[in-house]
Amino acid sequence: MAQNIYDDPGFFAGYSQLNRSLHGLDGAPEWPAIQALLPPMAGKRVVDLGCGFGWFSRWAAAQGAAGVLGIDLSARMLARARAETSHPAIAYQQADLETLELEEARFDLAYSALAFHYLADFPRLVATVHRALAPGGHFVFTIEHPIYMASTRPGWLARDDGAHAWALDHYAVEGPRETDWLAPGVIKQHRRMATTVNALIAAGFTLAALDEWAPSPAQLAAQPALQDEVERPMMLLVSARRG
Amino acid sequence: MAQNIYDDPGFFAGYSQLNRSLHGLDGAPEWPAIQALLPPMAGKRVVDLGCGFGWFSRWAAAQGAAGVLGIDLSARMLARARAETSHPAIAYQQADLETLELEEARFDLAYSALAFHYLADFPRLVATVHRALAPGGHFVFTIEHPIYMASTRPGWLARDDGAHAWALDHYAVEGPRETDWLAPGVIKQHRRMATTVNALIAAGFTLAALDEWAPSPAQLAAQPALQDEVERPMMLLVSARRG
Question: Of A16, A83, A138, B143, which residue is 20 to 30 A from B92 by alpha carbon distance?
Fold first, then answer.
């Protein structure tokens, strides 16, 4: 079973204060780039894998999705998602993505934001999603970028002149990385970019696009701290298609 | 026109002393990983883009390729390739990959090793290769990994405890990088991994596999210095298919 860190009270309290938790999709600077990868929602049957507070599920329903199934491991997150959702097209379900079962050809779009880097068995999830999509179905997801995850001691190192560079090491060593983000001992799973892409291809997906998200000039002007994202990507956006 | 650094006498002298120049394909530790991406050569019409001393062209011909066209910008490299080649299936041609023209549907495999990171206009080359391949044709190439190229001051930074980490910065800033490798002022072109992959997809290719090359345990035991390649990838191997 995946670590259920989102139900840790300290983690949950911290996570609830993030911009993306307070302001939803518009609080996530990568949201415009994700939208560019998404098909039109009208009439789509959508599964939202790691739906959290349900921001995307509600957006998809508001855009005309025929149905949205939001899935998350965290009881706390689902409780808030349910409390904030009244749209009849949305249902929520508590499940672990490591052991998830989905009906065959049940969905037109599988979406996930910043959840899969917690999974130890990514190929199993990809095979499950492939089966669950109708032919021509879309698979759009974001994960932490492997450049961001690779180091066993991630962070910035100072150069002699005071400039900083992101520390990269252990890139080829895949597997768990323990970090203290909002709570001590959060476990993430580092995979190389090639490993993620090859898992999709092996399952039968056709890769449609990658985006190593970086801020636009306007975003950078409004939020100078996003310069870090120019130096090293924190997020990888992936779009694939079931043939 | 691309910088013709390989015809710089100092660069050429240094390059000629590299393991991969002295020992050919077997002097390149990534060669087994490249072979895993290649289709059988028998009967194939092959173009070798940036053929250098012709090691791959000769290997392909020896494996039964129907014909091999080796293309390089460097007169010095082509002179040595021609001097060392007697196979009737091989022809060499001097051309700049930035402005290369190839006949339509003329080849079954386009191959390139560590050449495309010198090109400013990668999409033009990809479109040229797509047109030059017959339907079902293979496109297999290696480039310097963008993690290796990104920094404006590439190299290792020391941590307090003496461990080292690769310096990553300016990853999202694509364009020229000047380095002093074998000669001062070598110009390479940094592109993000997503940019390379998306250029292939935009031209009509289907991505078949990526490999961010790292040494095998046996290679690491034989050459401990290859540990650097575990910390951060130096090479990206790409396999794509024309539909």
Answer: B143
Q: What is the pLDDT of residue A21?
A: 87
State how far the Cα of A206 lies from the Cα of A241, in Å rounded to an integer: 5
Q: Which of A164, A172, A198 sits opposite B230 (nearest CB)?
A: A172
pLDDT, tens only, B190-228:
999 999 999 999 999 999 999 999 999 999 999 999 999
**Model ipTM value:** 0.96
Task: Give the pLDDT confidence score for residue A3 in this predicted structure.
Answer: 85
Which amino acid, residue B153? R
Domains, in order of start, for chain A:
96-242 (3.40.50.150)
d(CA B3, CA A233): 29
Residue A168 contacts B, CB cutoff 8 Å: yes
pLDDT at B1: 67
pLDDT in tens, B55-73: 999 999 999 999 999 999 9
pLDDT at position A113 over 70:
yes
A157/B165 Cβ within 8 A: yes
What residues in A contact B151, CB-CB < 8 Å? 165
| pTM of the predicted structure, to 2 decimals | 0.97
Q: What is the pLDDT of residue A1?
A: 67
Is residue B124 predicted with pLDDT exceeding 80? yes
CA–CA distance, B28 with B39 (Å, rounded to integer):
19
DSSP string, chain A: ----GGGSHHHHHHHHTSHHHHSGGGGSTTHHHHHTTPPP-TT-EEEEET-TTSHHHHHHHHTT-SEEEEEES-HHHHHHHHHT---TTEEEEE--TTT----TT-EEEEEEES-GGG-S-HHHHHHHHHHHEEEEEEEEEEEE-HHHH--SS-SEEE-TTS-EEEEE--TT--EEEEEEESEEEEEEEE--HHHHHHHHHHHTEEEEEEEE----HHHHHH-GGGHHHHHS--EEEEEEEE-
Report CB contact under 8 Å: B166, A167: yes
Q: How far apart are CA B230 and CA A183, in angstroms?
A: 29
Q: How far apart are CA B185 and CA B110, in angstroms?
A: 29
Query: Under 8 Å CB-to-CB from A174, ≥6 apart: which residues?
Result: A189, A190, A191, A192, A195
The whole-chain average pLDDT of chain A stands at 96
